[in-house]
Amino acid sequence: MIGTADMSQPIVFGAAYSVYVRTVRLVLAEKNVPYRLVEIDVFGEGGPPPDYLMRHPFGRIPAFEHDGFRLYETDAIIRYIDETFEGPSLIPDTPKARARMTQAMRILDSYAYPSMVWGVYVEQVDAPQEGRETDSAKLDEAIGRSRTCLAALEQLMDDGPFLVGSRPCLADFLAAPMFTYFRMAPQGRLLLGEHPRLKSWLERMLVRPSMVGTRWSSDEAGF
Q1: Looking at residue 180, what is its pLDDT?
Q2: Residue ranges of the alpha helices (H) in the chain?
Q3: Beta strand pairing status for 36-38 and 63-66?
Q4: Could you give the number of structural domains in the chain?
Q5: Is 155 a residue whose pLDDT tops 80?
Q6: Is the confidence at residue 109, as pLDDT, over 80?
Q7: Can you give the residue range of the structural domain that contains 17?
Q8: Interval 51-61: pLDDT, tens
Q9: For residue 5, is it within any domain?
Q10: 38 and 133, same structural domain?
Q11: With the C-alpha atoms ordered 172, 78, 166, 34, is the resulting torsion angle positive or negative?
Q12: Is 2 a residue whose pLDDT tops 70?
């Protein structure tokens, strides 16, 4: 059974390697909120535990609980965390900047994650490690879409060091885990090198204490 301990302490349900679970953990760390991680591997044999479906009826990760309040979907979780807990706001101050943040997050969810993680990283890194042949057609398509994503995100940056302005926001913590996987792939590193502002942004993100504290692989360290 998936139990609960201190109901006042947030609980994150999911696998440490997950992009979206890490996003939730990053936001909690940035707000300096202690939490508990309950490992749930939806790709394990037999899929997620049956009682986990009571937390997330679609069987995906993460799920979240705080003080008896249950929530799923990463966007909803991180916005709740930012509004509920003290600490630096991770949502921009102006309507235009908030709109840009939401735009960046939709690009990341809808286009970047499928292309950069499942298309490039999985085909170039996971497939060989698991003894599978890389699907060249899938990889080529993902490379093309990744180029579009990188160009769009870099264009949104304007002159700021972060994705939306001078301080990090929720979009940065959604993007960073995706980019971390992406640059582990040879084609990911190559494409990222074509976008020096995004490459510099990722370098800044990788040394943040929240990123260091949630590392799951030694491959993340350094370029």
Answers
A1: 97
A2: 19-30, 74-84, 95-107, 127-129, 136-156, 170-182, 186-193, 196-206, 209-213
A3: unpaired
A4: 2
A5: yes
A6: yes
A7: 11-84
A8: 999 999 999 99
A9: no
A10: no
A11: negative
A12: no
CATH of the domain at 26: 3.40.30.10
Residue type at 75 in one-letter notation: D
On whether both 115 and 17 belong to a single domain, the answer is no
Asked if residue 1 belongs to a domain, the reply is: no
Please give the Cα distance from 205 to 10 (Å, whole number).
Answer: 24
Cα 192 to Cα 176: distance, rounded to the nearest angstrom = 13
Q: Rounded distance, CA 212 to CA 214, Å?
A: 6
69, β-bridge pairs: 66
Tracing tokens 């990760």 back to the chain, one arrives at 61
> Where a domain ends, among 65, 84, 103?
84
Q: Which domain-ending residue is among 56, 84, 112?
A: 84
Kindly report the pTM of this predicted structure: 0.93
Summarised one tens digit per residue, pLDDT across range 128-153 is 888 888 899 999 999 999 999 999 99
Q: How far is CA 3 from CA 44, 72, 138, in A?
A: 19, 17, 40
Higher pLDDT, 109 or 216: 109
Tokens of 101: 């943040």
Percentage above 70 pLDDT, the chain: 94
